[in-house]
Amino acid sequence: MRILQVTNKVPYPTKDGGAIACMNLTKGFSLLGHDVTVLSMNTVKHHITLDEIPESIKNLAEFRLVDVPARISAIKAVVNLLFSQQPYNASRFIADNFSTELIRLLTEKEFDIIQLEGLYVCPYISLIREFSKALIVYRAHNIEHEIWARSAEISQGLKKFYLRNLAIRIRKFETRLLNNYDVLVPITQRDESILYGMGNRKPSMVSQTGIDSSVLFPNARNLEYPSLFHIGSMEWGPNQEGLLWFVQNCWPAIHQKYPDLKFYVAGRNAPAWMAKKFDQPNVQFLGEIADAYEFMNSKAIMVVPLFSGSGMRVKIIEGMALGKSIVSTPIGVEGIEVEKNRHILIAETVEQFVDAVSELVDNKELFENIGRNAIGFIHEKFDNLAAASKLIDFYKQYIK
Fold first, then answer.
1. Helix crossing, 384-396 with 17-31: angle to 10°?
2. In the chain, at which end, N or C, are there fewer CB atoms within 10 A of the end residue's CB?
3. What pLDDT, on a 0 to 100 scale, did the predictor assign at position 211?
4. At 62, is the secondary structure helix, strand, or coil?
5. How much of the chain, in percent, has pLDDT values that exceed 70?
6. How far apart, in Å, are the Cα atoms of 228 and each of 224, 240, 326, 353?
7. pLDDT for res 348
């Protein structure tokens, strides 16, 4: 089949959950023999040239990149707040030149499936219908308004007011776009239930982000045990909030209990103010690292202290695939049907995080068992080719 994936950022390099979710399906579709095209907004924040994409990736699909700045501007955000009902997040991705390139592509090529990766490319549905008879898929990476509502809950002052307002606007925006597509593909069962509750009436199928086991394989040869680590985008609000909470509230007690234990923090685009917060005993901030999987394989206990966000945390899936023992929150494991204390440890309070980390530091057998169980769980539930194949079978039911 001829498949077009439309994204609001280039899904390469695969250094965040959204990019991984897009690219893994690109790879899955391609390896199954389908003709894949990827049309991406090339934003200032994630700008890349075609020459920077390796040939091995370009062999999977035809990539077309359109420069859409999508800059975040405090002044524009205030103007939007005062004079528009549309959420600022969405308005940044509405661009005439992207519409022009989309029309050009749809007149050049016919597609059987057009898969919209995330909420912010859904405003182009009406344009797609004018120029294509393809099956239009909304692949919901998360419940977007929920991210901002949860961030508002743990914020204060003007920031709390702004985020609450933004969450309300995004919810209305999400609701207006419901049922404009032909089929819905949420990434988690929980997200599917929420979208049906909001009014979805279209056929749906949950399709979780798959894992490529040819790339993600455990290697404990250089494992530093015990050690703690966190890896994730440092520009994403929920990561910032959770990690700062952990460093400020949990790490002092852990360090006092285990004075030789090191906590490694890795991730790109950390603001200067945030990097300063990691200036604590035995906390090593590494910034962006060359090989995320090599780094993860070399460290022992992964902490993912998330208190906001939505959808599925791909880094947790990757960590489990690499056999990591992980301590995360209930929000962190949403959409991943893990068994507590078998595949992962769950904590919410400072005391619970300290106790969970202590268990894994003091009991290497528990640490190893959790890791082994995690690997088995991922191989059973998250095979990338199997996920792509099931999705194609689902689409075939609705192609006219």
1. 70
2. C
3. 84
4. strand
5. 100
6. 9, 17, 10, 12
7. 95
Q: Which residues of 333-353 are buried (b: 16+ CB within 10 A; e: fewer)?
A: bbbbebeeeebbbbbeebeeb
Q: Is 394 helix (H, G, I), strand (E, B) or coil?
A: helix
* Element (DSSP H or E) covering residue 326: strand 325-328
Task: Give the pLDDT confidence of 151-210 residue by residue, as tens digits.
Answer: 888 888 988 998 899 999 999 999 999 999 999 999 999 999 999 999 999 999 999 888
Strand partners, 3: 36, 113
Question: What is the spatial distance between Cα 362 and Cα 298, in angstroms, rounded to a whole number?
Answer: 19
Reduced to 3 states (helix: H, G, I; strand: E, B; else coil), residue 70 is coil
Q: What is the DSSP string of 194-209?
A: HHHHHT--S-B---PP
Q: Residue 103: which of 129, 121, 79, 78 has the closest Cα?
A: 129
Q: Which fold has domain 2-210+383-396?
A: Rossmann fold (3.40.50)
Report cis status (omega within 30 of 0) of the bond before 226: yes
Domain boundaries, the chain: 2-210+383-396, 224-381
* Closest C-alpha to 130, from 104, 103, 111: 103
Q: Are 344 and 324 in contact (CB under 8 A)?
A: no
Amino acid type, 242: G
Q: What superfamily would CATH give domain 224-381? A: Glycogen Phosphorylase B; (3.40.50.2000)
Q: What is the pTM of this model?
A: 0.86
CA distance 239 to 308: 8
The b-or-e profile of 135-163 (16+ CB within 10 A means b, else e) is bbbbbbbbbbbbbbbbbbeebeeeeeebb
Q: Are 112 and 121 in contact (CB under 8 A)?
A: no
Beta strands in 111-187 (DSSP E): 113-117, 135-140, 183-186
